[in-house]
Design brief:
The structure is a homodimer. The radius of gyration of chain A is 18 Å and the shape is elongated. By secondary structure, chain A is mostly helical. Chain A starts with 9 loop residues before the first helix and ends with a helix. Chain A has one domain: Tetracycline Repressor, domain 2 (Orthogonal Bundle), CATH 1.10.357. In chain A, helix 6 crosses helix 7. Chain A contains eight helices and no strands. Chains A and B meet through helix 7 and helix 8 of A and helix 7 and helix 8 of B. The structure holds a DNA duplex.
DNA sequence: CCTTCAGGTTAACGACCGCTAACCTCCCTG
DNA sequence: CAGGGAGGTTAGCGGTCGTTAACCTGAAGG
């Protein structure tokens, strides 16, 4: 994990605020003037950094999917041969929870605004998502070999639903603390998968 | 359960198609002309049945929340004293799964377009949702008394996330069949709650 | 010192969208 | 058989939104 110390670029500011606004009011519910105002410039000024509003959403969604997949692949590679499938599954769950807790607006966008993308971008995001799911399915089936593949895939999607529920958990502060929440989600995910395999 | 045999009214047709379109492309992404076309009339014709586009969304969301809460209250009343909390919890889960499997577009809208409502409608929906959650929390805490209330509430929200994942499970047909899917979701929900309580 | 360019600004255009107005046409009923 | 309401139609208004055009400015570089 490389920690950044330099200031965020204007592009990054824009993406961050756009993600927040899109998550709050939906892609079509946010105007470019609003996004500009959120970073201290006015609407058309955004076009110095992005070719259009669509491109911001596309970059956000492709970034999310890619980041999730990359992280999962890294965990898979690190575990290769040195740890059990059980530990690898825990690592995948942990990675997804970190993302769901730290980037709630992005998690919200991820399964909400996909259909607003142009065909080419949407296909790319779908492909990244599919690879991420398949990676999970393989690991889950190693831990629970008696789970048939279609059931495993459904179970994985459902676990994503469970983990991605963080935006509904109330603002950070009403929660029992980040660590406790992460632990709770982790236990529930494992419990759900175990129960899925006990068919 | 009273089964309807009479034809749906025009109002009901409109609501059904509007729900589907809103779920597919978002509230702001659908025009009134499109909704009208989906039921064979043209845009402004809708205003004979609804005062505006907002009213359709409001009626849908209030209807969903009310239906979920009413069903849960009925199950609670039927179980009063005659069955264990365990059986009641299973009944709640079953009711929610039926809804998630039979009315996918509505489930999608339910946690996606709430913020597009007028203040008064949004408050009403939030109140209904809160009552539904609290009802679940009470039953869950009867089954798992060692679960503290904040954790129980988080767990319930997460289970909703799990059960509401049905729209991501692929079109009906790629699934192992409705019964098997319902059973899988049920097992996973119970497993997740059991694991939550084992802290 | 002049040029260039990145990164802004405001004005405005064209398209779209929710909604209203005005009108039409059955069908039911007294 | 009048007539009135239910449920449509098309035309069009007013506002909003994404985008472009034209212009400005401050800092870097030869």
């Amino acid at each position: 994990m490389t920690t950044r110390t330099d200031a965020p670029t204007r592009r990054e500011q824009i993406l961050k605020e756009a993600a927040r606004l899109f998550a709050e009011r939906g892609f079509h519910g946010v105007g470019v003037d609003e996004i500009g105002a959120a970073v201290g410039i006015s609407g058309p000024g955004l076009y110095r950094h992005f070719p259009g509003k669509d491109a911001m959403l596309a970059e956000l969604l492709v970034g999310i999917s890619g980041q999730l997949l990359t992280g999962a692949k890294r965990r898979l590679a690190e575990a290769e041969g040195v740890t059990s499938s059980e530990v690898l599954l825990d690592s995948l769950i942990e990675g997804h929870i970190d993302f769901a807790l730290d980037d709630r607006p992005l998690i919200t966008l991820h399964d909400r605004e996909l259909d607003r993308l142009r065909d080419t971008d949407r296909k790319l995001v779908r492909q990244l998502q599919r690879q991420y799911v398949e990676l999970w399915v393989e690991v889950v089936r190693e831990v629970y070999p008696e789970l048939a593949e279609p059931s495993a895939r459904s179970a994985v999607h459902s676990v994503f639903g469970l983990l991605n529920s963080t935006p509904h958990l109330g603002r950070p502060g009403s929660l029992p603390g980040r660590g406790a929440t992460a632990e709770l989600l982790h236990r529930m995910a494992r419990g759900a998968l175990a129960a899925a395999s006990a068919g």
